[in-house]
Amino acid sequence: MWWWILAPAANCPTRVNFSVITLPSVNFAALNFEAYYGSRCGFGNKKSSKTGYLNHDIGIGLLSPVSSLARLCIACDRINFFSNVLSLILGITAITTMTELQIHRNYGPLAAGNKLSQFHEVPSTHSTASTVSISQVPKAEDVASILLNTSQPKDGELQQLFAENIAAKLWRVAQRDLKDNDPPTAYPEIVPQEGSQQGRYELREASFWTCGFFPGSLYTLLERETRYPGSQGYPLPRKTLLALCRAWAEPLHAMATRTDTHDIGFIVEPALRLDWELTGNRRSLQSIVTAAYSLATRYVAPSGAIRSWDLIRKKDVSIISMEENNIVIIDSLCNLDLLFYASAYTKDTTLATIARTHAHTMLTSHLRLESGIAASITGYSGPIYSTCHVANIDPKTGAIKQRLTAQGYATDSTWARGQAWAILGYAQTYMWTKERIFLDAACGLTEYFLRRLGPGYNVPPWDFDAPVENPEKPVFDSSASSIAANGMMILSEALVADGQLAIAENFRIAAIDVVKGLLRGALAEEKARFVVDGSQKGSENDTLEIEDVLAGSTFDGILKNGTANNNVGANRRYANHGLVYGDYYLLQFGNRLLRMGLI
Ligand SMILES: *[C@@H]1O[C@H](CO)[C@@H](O)[C@H](O)[C@H]1NC(C)=O
Ligand SMILES: *[C@@H]1O[C@H](CO)[C@@H](O)[C@H](O)[C@H]1NC(C)=O
Ligand SMILES: *[C@@H]1O[C@H](CO)[C@@H](O)[C@H](O)[C@H]1NC(C)=O
């Protein structure tokens, strides 16, 4: 083994990077070694600076078997040749020692503190662009015709995604449920369609996996107000809106260090990513990066998969040993975006490698090849796939021990939301990796979803294969269509880039039709509106009052007919209600239409 030592990338007090590259004949898979010597500079985390150098913050990451790159980064807080040399010696000694050890992953969320220092925001002080001189200023009388042409016919059905009803409902819940709950310890989850709580959001403990969606929906409104002013037909006071967004998002930051859940992507991304992107709040980016490292701790390298659940304990199944089992669920595909995003900022390819590996593993563990007797709906002619919900993978060998369902009807059935998670997750994964296998998977999953949904694209059943128990009250899951439609829209963009224009158009049309089916079948008829007189509308920091359009007819959710869990052995079986993530993905779809200029 031999080393190449690259010159320091920068001088102290910024971090000094030495790259040490191990070349061939390394007899362990690969390692990503980072030693932080005195981490007071940059974004060094406090915990490590307390305990001195070469402490537990030395993260050893097991990279994919293809990579044989090891890096040694030494951070210091002042130029000190001897300390650098000392660190280097210590570092190399450590690496050498490790070649003799069985190397284990040691990616704590604490490591995240330092990772972001690799991302530099460079203020563009010396732009090379020449000054643009506007020679032809439009004459005042011409300006009117340049403004938005409001007489353009609009798609009336899709306009419902931007109606006052949407913002009014979210605003009402945001204001009302923050009372005695600020900072929030409970978050909106479902809106019962019957019973004493009918029409009103049930709040659920903040640690539950759905906590990020309500703040995410508020940020979706903020994005509309910020990037697409006028898209909602009436102005919202942005300052108040941002304050509501921030209040609901606040507890999510502390959750970023959680390593007890794979749902950390669902928890932090919807709100904090938009907070970073719309407002430049660096704390939100840091929380996203921290969360990604937290998720990475759950990666079980020999099984090529991130652990979704530590255990399953329900009425009919009990899998409890983490040594013997790695339980991976289909939903996990939608938490990979977090890893890719953080990887792009930190330049730590380990995160992206973990995500890619997990996505590859799930092609085998969760996708079922279906024979396509029916004609293709989108024109996509490749293989089509259904999905199972849960696979139990051997954590030591990667062998698939068992497939089962937790939230669907049966092992071999297709749980509608699971199929939707797979469509969206593989569409996102393709966009990050551009690996064709993921594009094909996502297209094949979409084809299957659409064929099962059938003509008319009505509200999907909760499970495509479940028998209807009560014909008077069939169980639907509107959230499956909200989620799938977002995936299909991403795919339509991917297919345009891939030059498959006809199929791309069919995916786009299908996505829109699926959402229209949802609006026809599941949009709550109970509507809300703002109570504001014209003069107040749009003033910067109003507290807004909301009322039901039809007095006494209240439904906090935007969509009905969602189903959190209808599995017969579930610890809690609840179906046919408003669902916070059904609404979140519906609003996201609206923003996609805006971004694509389709509305
Ligand atoms: C606005 O749109 C309508 C309907 O498409 C069209 O007839 C009209 O000419 C447009 N007006 C301008 C100023 O472009
Ligand atoms: C959705 O729920 C409402 C209220 O329970 C019900 O009237 C309606 O039929 C349901 N929609 C579908 C598509 O079943
Ligand atoms: C709006 O906010 C500003 C600054 O916080 C405050 O001075 C002003 O009183 C507020 N106006 C209303 C109507 O609350």
Overall number of structural domains:
2
Percent in helix = 25-40%
Largest sheet: 4 strands, antiparallel
Small-molecule binders here are: 2-acetamido-2-deoxy-beta-D-glucopyranose
The third-level CATH topology of the largest domain is Glycosyltransferase
| Overall mean confidence score, pLDDT | 82
Distance separating the two termini: 59 Å
Strand content: 5-15%
Can you tell me the overall shape?
A: globular
CATH class assignment of the largest domain = Mainly Alpha
Poorly predicted runs:
1-106
Number of separate helices: 17
Structural class: alpha+beta
Number of strands: 21
Signal peptide: 1-18
Family: Belongs to the glycosyl hydrolase 88 family.
Keywords: Hydrolase, Signal
InterPro entries: 6-hairpin_glycosidase_sf, 6hp_glycosidase-like_sf, UG_Glycosaminoglycan_Hydrolase
Task: Please explain how this structure is put together.
The protein has helices at 46-50, 81-99, 112-115, 140-146, 156-159, 164-176, 213-227, 238-255, 264-279, 282-296, 336-346, 349-365, 416-433, 436-453, 478-497, 501-522, 580-595; strands at 3-5, 16-18, 20-22, 32-34, 59-61, 72-74, 186-192, 202-205, 299-300, 305-306, 312-313, 318-319, 326-329, 367-370, 384-387, 390-393, 400-404, 528-531, 545-548, 562-565, 574-579. By secondary structure, it is α+β, with helices and mostly antiparallel strands. The protein has two domains: 2-105, no CATH class; 109-595, Glycosyltransferase (Alpha/alpha barrel). It has a four-stranded antiparallel beta sheet with strand order 8-7-21-20. Strands 13-16-17 form a three-stranded antiparallel beta sheet, with no helix packed on it. Helix 14 crosses helix 15. The longest helix is centred in the last third of the chain and has 22 residues, at 501-522. The N and C termini lie far apart (59 Å). The model is unreliable at 1-106 (pLDDT under 50). The site of one 2-acetamido-2-deoxy-beta-D-glucopyranose (NAG) has 4 residues, from loops. One 2-acetamido-2-deoxy-beta-D-glucopyranose binds next to loops.
